[in-house]
Every structure is written in structure tokens, then in C-alpha cells.
Backbone:
């Protein structure tokens, strides 16, 4: 990925509790000294743009959702130590530096065989490991924009107006989700045993839930940004819970005169 692609890899809005302070040369040097490893150039470039957070890209077949930054807050590349996990697996953990994970699984920089790390996936509970990519650049090339099951809508209306229009088309009343969950407003429509979710493309830069770290800094992250730079500020996103329903929902929207298109087709994913 080039610099622009690396900048666009981060999800918007930024989840502030996962965002470390801006990465400095001194902080990078200290981190590499603590790890005893040189971090991959591409990872350093990513963290220089945004020092940790959720991604808008996904890794097919693996539960990647965020990448740790360098700093004092959780999750951190340098504030992790293997503990009881060493007793749970039959392979060597020394030389693995986790950059994503939830305690059950981890994606790691794998320095066990080389100073240029591969990327490994390990499952602590199942005592399994596998090499995903021979280096971090190859790992990034495997990532794909999270666009499955999403419809881009152009209605010329704001979110509430689009919600009202969809209520008429779908013959169901929408319910508002807690905006603290995502950092922006979401309306849910019950449909055939599942839920369609409507949300705006334009959001504010960052969010945190009340009581969380950096909540008081929200005012510093209030500028508007786009979740999908491929769409304009007036676009709306409709998440469809079942991929097989995409065609049906698209037909209903188009029959009602709306400009609707699979997000995957729009972004060329």
C-alpha cells in the first residue's frame, strides 16, 4: 500500500480510547529498544499517520478489526507480555509480537525465524498457529475494504429524512440505536428475522463513550470526515444483514426511485 492507501486504512470515526499519542521518532526508538526488534517500515508508516485504532479493512478468514499503537494506553505494541498463554500452547511464543487480538487469538509479527518478521496467526485456546504472510507488506496486500452487505444510497435527504423514506418503502418503523455504540446515529429496521441498519457517510472525526478514556477530548475531534472517501458527504449507508438479500433490497429501493448501489461496486472492492 502507498501512503494514501495507508491513511485510508483507518476506520472513521476514530475510537479515541484506542488512539495513542502521535508517534514521534523518540517514541519509536524507545519502543524498538524495549521490544529488541525493528518494526516493519509499513507498520511504522501506518502508526505515523494514526497511532492505533480500528480498521475499515478486513482479513478474510481471520478476526482482524484493530491494530495496536505505540504508547502507554491499551492496546499497545509494547505493553504486552505473554503470561499464562505460554502454558496453553505447544509452540514457542518468544519472538512473537502481537499487534491485534482479543486474548483468545492474536495476529503477531513473527521474528522467530528472521529479523524481517512474517505475520502469524495464533489461537491460544486451540493451540494452533499459521503463517499468514511472509512480511507485513504482503499482509497488508491481503486486506480488503469492509464493503460486503452494504448499500450506498443517494437520496438528497438527511439521515432522518432518509429514515422516513425507507420506513415507507420497507413498511416498517425504524428504531434508533444508541449513538455511543458507533460514534454516529444509526437507525435499525427489522426485516425477515434480521436487521437493516441505516447510517450516514459523514461523521465526526472521533468518538468515545461516556466515562471512557479521552471522552473529554471529543471537542478536539469534532471536525466532519467521511467513513468512505469514495462517497460524498450526503451519501447514506444501508447495512444488509444477509448477503443473499442484497438483490431483493436493491430492487425495492430502485423501484421506489432511490439511487442505490452495492458499496462493493462503488468502491471496486
Residues:
Amino acid at each position: 500500500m502507498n501512503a494514501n492507501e495507508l491513511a485510508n486504512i483507518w476506520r472513521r470515526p476514530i475510537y479515541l480510547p484506542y488512539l495513542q499519542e502521535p508517534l514521534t521518532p523518540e517514541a519509536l526508538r524507545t519502543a524498538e529498544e524495549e521490544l529488541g526488534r525493528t518494526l516493519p517500515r509499513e507498520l511504522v508508516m501506518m502508526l505515523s499517520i494514526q497511532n492505533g485504532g480500528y480498521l475499515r479493512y478486513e482479513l478474510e478468514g481471520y478476526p482482524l478489526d484493530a491494530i495496536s499503537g505505540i504508547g502507554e494506553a491499551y492496546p499497545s505494541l509494547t505493553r504486552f507480555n505473554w503470561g499464562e498463554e505460554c502454558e496453553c500452547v505447544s509452540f514457542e511464543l518468544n519472538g512473537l509480537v502481537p499487534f491485534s487480538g482479543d486474548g483468545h487469538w492474536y495476529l503477531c509479527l513473527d521474528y522467530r525465524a528472521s529479523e524481517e518478521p512474517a505475520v502469524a496467526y495464533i489461537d491460544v485456546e486451540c493451540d494452533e498457529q499459521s503463517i499468514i504472510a511472509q512480511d507485513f507488506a504482503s499482509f497488508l496486500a491481503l486486506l480488503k475494504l469492509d464493503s460486503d452487505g452494504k448499500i450506498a444510497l443517494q437520496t438528497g435527504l438527511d439521515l432522518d429524512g432518509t429514515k422516513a423514506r425507507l420506513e415507507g418503502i420497507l413498511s416498517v418503523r425504524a428504531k434508533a440505536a444508541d449513538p455511543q455504540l458507533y460514534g454516529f446515529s444509526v437507525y435499525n429496521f427489522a426485516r425477515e428475522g434480521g436487521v437493516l441498519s441505516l447510517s450516514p457517510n459523514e461523521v465526526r472525526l472521533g468518538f468515545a463513550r461516556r466515562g471512557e478514556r479521552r471522552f473529554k477530548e471529543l471537542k478536539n475531534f469534532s471536525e466532519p470526515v467521511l467513513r468512505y472517501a469514495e462517497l460524498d458527504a450526503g451519501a447514506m449507508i444501508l447495512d444488509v444483514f444477509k448477503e443473499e438479500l442484497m438483490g431483493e433490497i436493491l430492487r425495492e429501493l430502485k423501484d421506489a426511485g432511490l439511487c442505490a448501489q452495492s458499496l462493493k461496486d462503488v468502491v471496486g472492492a
Notes: The chain has a mean pLDDT of 93. The chain is about 20% helix and 25% strand.
